[in-house]
Amino acid sequence: MEIDISFDFRSDSGGKDPDKYSRTLRQYHKLLWSRDLPNGQFFGLTDSVPGKYLVHQSNFGEFFLSSDSVIPTFAKWKSMKPVTSNFSADEIEAFVSIGYTIGGMMIFPANQVGGMQTINGARGFTRAISDRFDLTLECIRRHYLQIESPLSQTLARYADFFDLFLDFHGYVDFFLLQDLVNIDGEVQFFLPFDEFGPPSIPTDRHAYAEYRQRSIDFVRARNNRIMALGI
């Protein structure tokens, strides 16, 4: 299977959540992230464990992983209608569509620890994050530096997963996130950042346009990095 960076995973999910139901997305994740870790060891993934999305089993441990589309458009948020209504249906659809290409997708641990939220869940339900991936990545950066963030407790529950990548640089390189980080290892935010202070979502037409364009630019850049792998 060759990876098509223009493939919209909604097209093979039967109208359901592509993160769960797109077979193409699962295979792309398996192909992309079955690769060497920063320590040189191979991170193999299988989709043959019944009831599990992707699984890694080795002397490093057992990891159950799921897909997460990480570029929210906020188009379905009722509270965002006064903002998103300033954009045409075609503009919104173009944003949604590129967000459902492989450059807009990640994998995170899927197992609940102590009955608490997974990373996927916490990203969406933590108001200071509002499902934004740039803010999530800043939380991950702070996890490696042992600095508090709105997702500190959640990420700490999956410390064994993040330890696989040694440090933030290793995590960024493994998942091809370089275009969301500057040369100093700092996250390049989609909107002005004020230490997770509100608002975490675009509040007017200008802010949404900026958020939309920067998100699209990131996904396109990451898609190009994925294409360059030649898989």
Describe the structure.
The chain has 231 residues and is α+β, with helices and mostly antiparallel strands. It has one domain (9-228). It is 39% helix and 10% strand. It has ten helices and five strands, in the order ααββββααβαααααα. It has helices at 18-21, 23-33, 81-84, 89-99, 119-125, 133-145, 152-156, 159-163, 168-174, 205-228, and strands at residues 35-36, 42-43, 54-58, 61-69, 105-109. The N and C termini lie close together (8 Å).
Oligomer: single chain
Radius of gyration over C-alpha positions, nearest whole angstrom: 17 Å
Helical percent range?
25-40%
Number of strands: 5
Q: How do the SSEs run, as a string of H and E?
A: HHEEEEHHEHHHHHH
Q: For the record, give the distance between the C-alpha atoms at the N and C termini, rounded to a whole number.
A: 8 Å
Concise synopsis of the structure shown:
With 231 residues, this protein is an alpha+beta fold.
Task: Write the SSE topology.
Blueprint: H1 18-21, H2 23-33, E1 35-36, E2 42-43, E3 54-58, E4 61-69, H3 81-84, H4 89-99, E5 105-109, H5 119-125, H6 133-145, H7 152-156, H8 159-163, H9 168-174, H10 205-228
Antiparallel strand pairs: 1-2, 3-4, 4-5
